[in-house]
Design a protein that fits this description.
Helix content is 13%, strand content 34%. By secondary structure, it is mostly beta strands.
């Protein structure tokens, strides 16, 4: 895999962790989500989560961070597709 390094910030909503990571511009949104979930120590399947950038869902996670226009130090949010009931 090639591409220029790009610093991004990913907030994993469920863990309230902001994770700083350097990714390549050729990294897919799915790979960023997967890495953020691992670093936040969440073990649920990645398919249960979605990624948002500037308030909009990035539905096609096969696109690269360059394709979707994420800038250096861009902020992404990873959150559950469906809310869990509070107990």
């Amino acid at each position: 895999m090639s591409g220029a390094p790009l610093p991004v910030r990913v907030t994993v909503h469920e863990a309230w962790d902001e994770i700083a990571m350097d990714v390549l511009t050729t990294t897919t949104v799915h790979e960023v989500k997967q890495r953020a979930l691992v670093e936040a120590r969440l073990t649920d399947p990645a398919g249960e989560f979605l990624v948002k950038f500037r308030g909009a869902e990035l539905a096609d996670e096969s696109r690269t961070v360059a394709d979707v226009g994420i800038p250096a130090d861009g902020a992404l949010i990873v959150l559950r597709r469906r809310r869990r009931p509070m107990r």
